[in-house]
Design goal:
heterotrimer, A mainly alpha (263), B alpha/beta (232), C mainly alpha (123), B: 232 residues, alpha/beta, six-stranded mixed sheet, 9 strands, 33% helix, globular, C: 123 residues, mainly alpha, Arc Repressor Mutant, subunit A, two-stranded antiparallel ribbon, 2 strands
Chain lengths: 263, 232, 123
């Protein structure tokens, strides 16, 4: 059933993302071909070609920003409209558990967020001179391994995914809490997000106050911290994040199960 | 288990207002039951509670002996008063969704009914009129071979000709062991097809009788009795 | 023949009357098979359970009989149908006579009115 939910969630969102991705790649390619930066540098006065180049670059940047804004908006809108709007009458009478609704939406949102990053990177690869870029990437990776060691290839994606999950679940929890208000539900959701975010920060600060000495001492005491020290630090910080993530999930599930009140 | 639905002292409170007060009701299998009451009398609240869209403040609801949840959703086919169809799907997509989620969904039946109503399965829901969308929803709901159908105001928004078609669809598509609960305030159109009626007023059940009992005892139609009971 | 159901009397007894009428007038001939409960209910736009009850009553009265394997049939007993016809005729005439008496006609006058009107209708 979870697979079925995800299938329809992907169906419902792909029709919005795929055209955007295609547009982004297309404009990256277009910019590569007409080489607007070169065009602007080489032309002596303002002419039609320059104007065209500027427009082309602008559209590309709007698309990049737009894709990330869209990812966020669709994430919110799918949860709000599909579960808590009129479509909720269908979704919540399907024979599935409420946690499956949350997980299916979460996983699909994560999928699109990651894909949006990949698409942005691809478009940059298309846009710029790849020889130079690869050289710089290689340098970046070697600096990365200096700091984190090869374990960093696990710890950093792990922390990134964890933060992403927590971030999305916090948005869901805020929308679910906002749904409990009888009026101005979207405003209430926004307010609830601020509250949840503050709570998250407070938990983090408390965590540092209580365990900080233990965690930071080995990192700070040595002049050059070893990769394993850094990785331990990242792992330690993931503990309060996991707690917050679980709390947001449980809260959202409780509201959907027991406090649901569709208009 | 002869009752498909049993409610024991169910109360639902919203804030300070009680939408349902101490409702106790047993509904047997194989009946068509009319849940009749004016607007805001608690009909929809009752149906939502049975579908797990709301949780009772106190009391218990049992469907086929089970509390509302995944197991009861498999055997209850619910038509809400709202239009729950999104606008980007085609009719055939939403039929696919029902097939994927409900094991009792009869796809062939759904396509048959669409054909009879001249609705093209390739049409997008976005382009359809409100009335057509309501018909599509009814087709989806009645194409399930469920044990309990709960229809919330199924004839509210349609013209009299479509009303007859809808009643005909309901009569010809439910199986004899299934129970249908129809909530409505348009009684005269519907009373001929009901076994029993439940009058609900301000969140309380005020009368439960068969249609023929009412006619025999009072010499009145259910519709005129209703007008008397709910006189303002 | 359309099903005419009034809203102030029990549906069940009206269905019995309507089916009796159909049998007497030959819509359902002697010994013929009746449509299924479901089809009849749909035709009359009534609840199948109510139709079922009406048919069961008619069966009890002997006007219908059920063959376990092939369905429900109209009786082949001519006398029984005659009886029903007579009963229905009696009921109609009683109602008619009551109304005519209320209008102030006596027995002789009523008979002559009937003959006159019957003659007129023949032409």
């Amino acid at each position: 059933m979870l697979a079925n939910l995800m299938k329809y969630e992907i169906k419902g969102t792909a029709r919005l993302f795929i055209p955007l991705y295609l547009a982004l790649l297309l404009f990256a390619l277009l910019n590569r071909i007409i080489n607007p930066f070169g065009m602007i540098e080489s032309s002596e006065n303002f002419n039609l070609q320059v104007m065209f180049s500027i427009i082309s670059i602008t559209v590309y940047f709007i698309l990049i920003v737009g894709i990330f804004v869209m990812t966020l908006i669709i994430m919110i809108q799918r949860f709000y409209k599909n579960l808590l709007g009129d479509e909720g009458y269908l979704m919540f009478t399907l024979p599935v558990k409420s946690w499956q609704h949350i997980v299916s939406k979460l996983l699909v949102s994560m999928l699109w967020t990651i894909l949006s990053f990949i698409m942005a990177i691809c478009s940059i690869l298309i846009l710029v001179d790849s020889d130079n870029l690869f050289k710089e990437i290689r340098q970046l990776i070697s600096r990365f391994t200096d700091i984190f060691g090869s374990a960093g290839f696990f710890t950093l994606p792990y922390y990134a995914l964890l933060s992403l999950t927590t971030g999305i679940l916090m948005i869901y929890a805020a929308i679910a809490l906002g749904h409990l208000f009888s009026k101005h539900k979207l405003m209430a959701s926004f307010g609830m997000y601020c509250v949840l975010y503050v709570i998250y920060q407070v938990v983090m600060v408390l965590f540092i106050l209580v365990f900080g000495k233990k965690i930071f001492t080995p990192v700070l005491s040595s002049p050059i911290p070893t990769p394993s020290d850094i990785n331990t630090l990242v792992f330690s910080f993931s503990i309060p994040t996991i707690l917050i993530m679980a709390a947001n999930f449980i809260l959202t599930n409780y509201i959907l199960q027991k406090k649901l009140n569709l208009e | 288990m002869s009752n498909i639905l049993e409610c024991k002292n169910v109360t639902k409170v919203f804030g300070a207002k009680a939408a349902l007060r101490d409702v106790t009701l047993n509904i047997p299998r194989g009946k068509i039951v009319g849940l009749l009451g004016p607007n805001a009398s608690g009909k929809s609240t009752f149906i939502k509670l049975c579908n797990d869209l709301l949780t009772p403040t106190s009391g218990e609801i049992l469907i086929d002996g089970k509390k509302p949840g995944v197991d009861t959703k498999k055997i209850v086919s619910y038509l809400p008063e709202r239009n729950y169809l999104n606008d980007w799907m085609r009719v055939s997509d939403i039929i696919g969704l029902f097939r994927d989620f409900y094991t009792d969904f009869n796809e062939e039946k759904a396509y048959d009914m669409l054909k009879r109503l001249d609705i093209n399965p390739k049409d997008k829901l976005k382009t359809m009129s409100k009335g057509t969308k309501e018909k599509v929803q009814l087709i989806l709901v009645m194409s399930r071979e469920a044990q309990l159908y709960m229809l919330d105001e199924p004839i509210g928004g349609v013209d009299p000709a479509a009303r007859d078609y809808i009643l005909d669809t309901i009569l010809s598509n439910y199986n004899e062991n299934a129970t249908i609960i129809i909530s409505t305030h348009l009684i005269s159109d519907i009373e001929k097809i009901l076994d029993e009626v439940v009058f609900i007023k301000e969140g309380k059940i005020v009368l439960t009788k068969t249609v023929d009992e009412i006619r025999e005892e009072s010499g009145k139609s259910v519709d005129s009795l209703f007008r008397e009971v709910f006189k303002c | 023949m359309p099903w005419e159901l009034k809203s102030d009397r029990p549906i069940y007894s009206q269905l019995i009357e309507q089916i009796e009428l159909r049998i007497c007038s030959g819509v359902y001939p002697l010994g013929s098979k009746l449509p299924s409960v479901r089809d009849l209910a749909q035709e009359a736009a009534v609840n199948p359970n109510t139709m079922q009850r009406a048919l069961a009553k008619l069966e009890e009265d002997g006007l219908l009989y059920t063959n376990r394997t092939s369905g429900r049939f109209v009786t082949e007993d001519v006398n029984m149908i005659k009886q029903v016809k007579n009963r229905l005729a009696k009921e109609h005439v009683q109602v008619f006579l009551k109304k005519m008496t209320e209008l102030g006609f006596d027995y002789e006058e009523i008979l002559s009115i009937i003959t006159t009107i019957a003659e007129e209708m023949k032409e």
